[in-house]
Design brief:
- The protein is mainly alpha-helical.
- Among the domains are: 93 residues, no CATH class; 64 residues, no CATH class; 70 residues, no CATH class; 71 residues, no CATH class.
- The chain is built from 22 helices and no strands.
- The chain is elongated and about 210 Å long.
- The N terminus is likely disordered.
Length: 570
C-alpha cells in the first residue's frame, strides 16, 4: 500500500528548493518559520521529504490516503497524484467524478457518474445499466452488443429518448437483397418475423400476411421452394400453381386423361402427395359404401377410365349375376338391379324383399327356403294361392276332413301363416254366427260325423233333448214352439224368460198378484189350459145377471178372458 502512495510524494519534487544549512548550523540556529505550500497540512515534512533536499521524495512516504476523506479504491490506486492534485494545496481537490472526468454524455444522465460507473473501471458494470432495465430491455443478442452500437459516438451520442423502433438500428438489415422487404412492402416491425437472438432464422406468419396458411410439409419448406427467384409477389395460392408437374405426372389414375379438377386439396393433403384420398360421395353421384370402400379404383375404372357414366350394379357385377345359380338369376329373369337383394357389404348372403312382390312373406313363410316354393328354380310362374303349396296339408286334415266336407281351398279362411295348426274358423262369416256358449262348443258337437255341409241352423235340431226334457213348464205337453230363442239365449239353457204376449200378466192389476205360472195354468201338463175364476171367484148366480146383455157370454173358466183381455178387470 505504501508503494502505491509514492506517487503522492513526487509532488514535492516540483516545489521550489529551499536553501539548506549545515547540520551543526541548524542545531546552533533556530528553524525559520517557513509557510508550507501545501496549505494547512498537519503532517511533518519528513513523512515525505528527506533532509538532503525537497526532492526527490522519500521512496516510502509515511502517508496513507485511506486516512483522508477520500480513500483510494480500484483504478484510483494506480493514478498518479498530480493527475488529481494539480494544485500544491492538496485539500482543494474535489471528490466529485465530474471534476476529473469529462462528461461524454453531455449531461444526459446528470453529474452522478457512479450511478453507472465504478472505481474498478470506466466500463459500465452496474447490472441495472448493463441489463438496460428501462423502456427497452436488452434480451437475446442485444445483451451482448456494445453501448455505442446503438448509442453512436458516446461523446456526443443520444442516450435519452433514443428510438426503440427496430428500423432505427436495422435499416440496413431491412434492405437485405435476399428478400427485398422494401419492394414487398413488409412492415418495419422486425419482431413480426425476427427474434432478438439473431436476424437469421426468421419466422413469417404466412396466414396473417398472405391469407395462405402453411400446413404440413409446406411449413418446413424453404421460402424459395415456392418463391423462386426471389419472387414474392404474384405467387399463386392454388395447388396447381406449384404442383402442376405432380398433377400431369400422376398416372394412377391419370389426372389429365380423367379430367380431374386442378384443386389438389380434393384428394391430397399438405402432409404428402401420396397417399391420396378421394371423397366419392362428395364429387360423384355414386357414394362408396360397404366393400366398395376398399376396392382399388382400377377395379371399376378399367384402363384409367374415370369418366364412367353408368352407376348400375350390373356394369361391374354382370359376372356375378350370370354365375349365380341358386337361384339362377338369368333364367329366372331377375332384374339386374342387384341392390334389390344384395348389399354393398358382400354378394352373399343376399336378402330378397318379398314384400315388394304380389305375395308378401309373413309368419312361417319368412323362414322357408326359397326352393321350397320355387321348385326347379321357377321364380316366374309360381302361383300365389295357398292350396298350390298346401295341397297335402289340405287333403291330410281329418278333423275336420277338408276334402270330404268340401271346405274351400282358400286356407286363410281358417289358417294363418304362423302355423297350419291350430286353426280358427270364423263362424260369423256363415249363416249361423256363434254367440254365447256356442263359441266354446266343440265343432263336432254340432257337426256330427264330420257333417259340415248340411248342418241345420235351427235351435231344435241340436236342443231337442233340452226341449223334451224340460218339465217346468213341460214344453211338449204345453205345445211350446220349437223356436227356442223365444225364451232362451245362447248363454245358457236355464234362466229362460217367457214373454207373456197373449195376456199382460206382468202389468195392470195383475202385477204382483201371482207367484207361479200354476196360479192360472191349473194343468201343469198343458199350459194351453188356464182358468180366470181360480182367482176371480164369482158364483154363476151373481155373475150371470151382470152379463145378461152380452150375446156371447157363457160362464166358463176362461170366459173372463174373452172380454177382459187387458187384465185390468174391465
Amino acid at each position: 500500500m505504501r508503494k502505491s502512495f509514492l506517487a503522492v510524494l513526487l509532488i514535492s519534487a516540483q516545489l521550489t528548493a529551499l536553501p539548506l544549512v549545515a547540520a551543526d548550523q541548524q542545531e546552533a540556529n533556530p528553524r525559520a518559520n517557513v509557510r508550507s505550500p501545501h496549505g494547512a497540512l498537519a503532517r511533518p515534512c519528513e513523512d515525505c521529504h528527506t533532509r538532503i533536499a525537497w526532492t526527490p521524495l522519500r521512496s516510502l512516504p509515511e502517508f496513507n490516503h485511506n486516512d483522508t476523506k477520500y480513500p483510494l479504491r480500484g483504478m484510483h490506486m494506480e493514478v498518479g497524484c498530480k493527475q488529481c492534485h494539480t494544485n500544491m494545496v492538496f485539500t482543494k481537490v474535489s471528490m466529485r467524478c465530474a471534476d476529473c472526468h469529462a462528461d461524454l454524455h453531455r449531461g444526459q444522465f446528470g453529474a452522478n457518474c457512479e450511478q453507472c460507473h465504478t472505481v474498478k473501471g470506466w466500463r459500465v458494470s452496474i447490472n441495472s445499466v448493463k441489463e438496460h432495465f428501462n423502456r427497452f430491455p436488452l434480451v437475446g443478442a442485444h445483451a451482448a452488443v456494445e453501448c455505442d452500437a446503438c448509442h453512436k459516438n458516446m461523446a456526443s451520442g443520444q442516450f435519452v429518448g433514443l428510438s426503440t423502433a427496430c428500423l432505427s438500428c436495422h435499416q440496413t438489415d431491412y434492405r437485405t437483397p435476399v428478400i427485398n422487404h422494401v419492394s414487398l412492402g413488409f412492415g418495419t416491425t422486425c419482431t413480426d418475423c425476427h427474434s432478438m437472438n439473431s436476424w437469421f432464422g426468421a419466422k413469417f406468419d404466412h396466414l396473417k400476411y398472405t391469407g395462405y396458411a402453411l400446413l404440413g410439409v409446406h411449413a418446413t419448406l424453404d421460402c424459395t421452394a415456392c418463391h423462386a427467384g426471389g419472387q414474392y409477389k404474384g405467387t399463386p395460392a392454388n395447388c396447381f400453381g406449384c404442383h402442376q408437374k405432380d398433377f400431369t405426372g400422376a398416372t394412377n389414375p391419370n389426372h389429365v386423361q380423367a379430367g380431374f379438377p386442378h384443386d389438389c386439396g380434393v384428394c391430397h393433403s399438405s402432409i404428402a402427395w401420396s397417399p391420396a384420398t378421394f371423397n366419392h360421395s362428395t364429387f360423384t353421384a355414386f357414394p362408396l359404401t360397404g366393400a366398395h370402400i376398399t376396392v382399388p379404383c382400377a377395379q371399376c375404372h378399367v384402363n384409367n377410365n374415370y369418366n364412367l357414366t353408368s352407376t348400375a350394379c350390373a356394369t361391374c357385377h354382370m359376372t356375378d349375376f350370370n354365375g349365380t345359380t341358386n337361384p339362377n338369376h338369368k333364367t329366372s329373369g331377375f332384374p339386374t338391379d342387384c341392390s334389390v337383394c344384395h348389399s354393398t357389404t358382400a354378394w352373399i348372403p343376399a336378402s330378397f324383399d318379398h314384400g315388394k312382390t304380389a305375395f308378401p312373406l309373413t309368419g312361417a313363410h319368412i323362414t322357408v327356403a326359397c326352393a321350397t316354393c320355387h321348385v326347379n328354380n321357377n321364380y316366374t310362374t309360381i302361383p300365389t294361392d295357398c292350396y298350390s303349396c298346401h295341397t297335402a296339408d289340405y287333403n291330410g286334415t281329418t278333423n275336420p276332413n277338408h276334402k270330404t266336407v268340401g271346405f274351400p281351398t282358400t286356407c286363410v279362411v281358417c289358417h294363418s301363416t304362423t302355423a297350419w295348426n291350430p286353426a280358427t274358423f270364423n263362424h260369423n262369416t256363415t249363416v249361423f254366427p256363434l254367440t254365447g256358449a256356442h263359441v266354446t262348443v266343440a265343432c263336432t258337437s254340432c257337426h256330427i260325423n264330420g257333417n259340415y255341409t248340411t248342418t241345420p241352423t235351427d235351435c231344435y235340431s241340436c236342443h231337442t233333448a233340452d226341449y223334451t226334457g224340460t218339465n217346468n213348464p213341460n214344453h211338449v205337453a204345453s205345445a211350446f214352439p220349437t223356436t227356442c230363442a223365444t225364451c232362451h239365449t245362447t248363454t245358457s239353457w236355464a234362466g229362460a224368460t217367457f214373454n207373456h204376449t197373449w195376456f199382460p200378466i206382468y202389468s195392470g192389476t195383475h202385477a204382483g198378484k201371482w207367484t207361479t205360472c200354476g196360479d192360472c195354468h191349473v194343468n201343469p201338463a198343458d199350459y194351453s189350459v188356464f182358468s180366470c175364476i181360480t182367482c176371480h171367484q164369482h158364483s154363476q148366480a151373481n155373475t150371470d145377471p151382470h152379463h145378461s146383455g152380452n150375446k156371447n157370454y157363457t160362464y166358463t173358466p176362461t170366459s173372463c178372458y174373452s172380454c177382459h183381455r187387458n187384465g185390468n178387470g174391465g
